[in-house]
Amino acid sequence: MIKNTAGQKLFIYAYDTVANEAATGEAANISNQISLDGDTSAAATNSVTELDSTNHPGIYVLELEQTETDADVIIITPSCSTEGVVIDPISIETINQTDIETLLTNTATDIGNLTLYNVALNDLYIKGTVGDKVNVLAIG
Predict the structure, then answer these.
(1) CB atoms within 10 A of CB 138
(2) Segment 45-76, tens digit of pLDDT
(3) What is the total count of domains within the chain?
(4) What pTM was estimated for this model as a whole?
């Protein structure tokens, strides 16, 4: 996620432990708390919307405001008021727009625990570790 940038979307998955399936029709019952860099949490500005209950059951979309992305680490803790519906918290490390722009002029750039590779002008590969897992994201 790009730091301090409006209009970015976060996708969350809600699961109904009673029915043992994806939770659909829960948008009005889901609320989100946001903590920026571990500071005091606050309610998210926007409510979630359900992506598509038929083709993507249980997936909800939260659009973040610019101020909600102005941190190095964003913690989102969604909850649902419907008994038995669970949603895992989400931790996001942001990247500065200037670091992305720097990447476009360099072959490889280290930013925190991420290494960014610019293979071609329209291709971007990000390799990073979270815990003991290596994640690679290709954008192009």
Answers:
(1) 11
(2) 999 999 999 999 999 999 999 999 999 999 99
(3) 2
(4) 0.73
Q: Could you tell me the two tokens for 96?
A: 């500065």
Q: What percent of the chain has pLDDT over 90?
A: 61
Q: Which amino acid is at 121?
A: L
The H or E element spanning position 102 is helix 97-103
Amino acid at 57: P
Token pair of 67 as six digits: 């101020």
Which position has the higher pLDDT, 112 or 139?
112
Residue 126: which of 93, 85, 89 has the closest Cα? 93
pLDDT value at residue 99? 72
Residue 7 three-state SS: coil
Contact 84, 17 (CB under 8 A): yes
Same domain, yes or no: 84 and 103: no
Q: Do 23 and 67 fall into the same domain?
A: yes
Q: Distance between CA atoms of 101 and 121, rounded to whole angstroms?
A: 11
- What are 4's two structure tokens? 């301090």
